[in-house]
Design brief:
The chain is mainly alpha-helical. It has a single domain, classed as Orthogonal Bundle (Arc Repressor Mutant, subunit A). It is 43% helix and 7% strand. The protein has six helices and four strands, in the order H-E-H-H-E-H-E-E-H-H. Strand 3 and strand 4 form a beta hairpin. The longest helix is centred in the first third of the chain and has 11 residues. It is globular, with a radius of gyration of 13 Å. The termini are far apart. It binds a DNA duplex through helix 2, helix 3 and strand 2.
Length: 113
DNA sequence: TGGGTGACCATAG
DNA sequence: ACTATGGCCACCC
């Protein structure tokens, strides 16, 4: 339905929306979960399209493998991402997530129990 | 149809 | 420690 874009994009959005509050994930995990392998770039690109999606996509919960807010620069306001993360209870410093391992949410692990 | 691109990740120097 | 390069795979023109 409404395949405005590749199912991949929608799939990425779906996974991102499933991210619980106070948790974060990385592009590689999503890419792997989708079976895209290391095409994590596509995931990031999909998030870029998330801006066009009507539904709200918590892109601020998606960070790179290092736990850095790489995509913050793509937000309406680069500070919004950090603000949102802190609002969810995630400590962020220097555009990096503290205790990233604790907040890390792996779709493969959590969804594929 | 083909080429360029990307909010990445991993390895090498 | 940082920089450079390759690979990856889907989307857009």
């Amino acid at each position: 339905m409404e395949k405005t874009q590749g199912d991949f994009f929608l799939n990425v959005f779906a996974v991102v929306r499933l991210i619980p509050k106070g948790r974060v994930t990385n592009y590689g995990a999503i890419a792997k979960y989708l079976g895209a392998g290391r095409s994590s770039r596509m995931v990031g690109w999909a998030m870029n399209a998330s801006h066009t999606q009507k539904k709200k996509v918590p892109a601020h919960r998606v960070v790179n493998r290092n736990g850095e807010l790489t995509g913050k620069h793509h937000f309406p306001s680069p500070f919004m991402m950090q603000e949102l993360l802190e609002k969810e209870g995630i400590k962020v410093e220097n555009d990096k997530i503290i205790d990233f391992k604790k907040c890390f949410w792996d779709p493969m692990k959590e969804l594929e129990v």
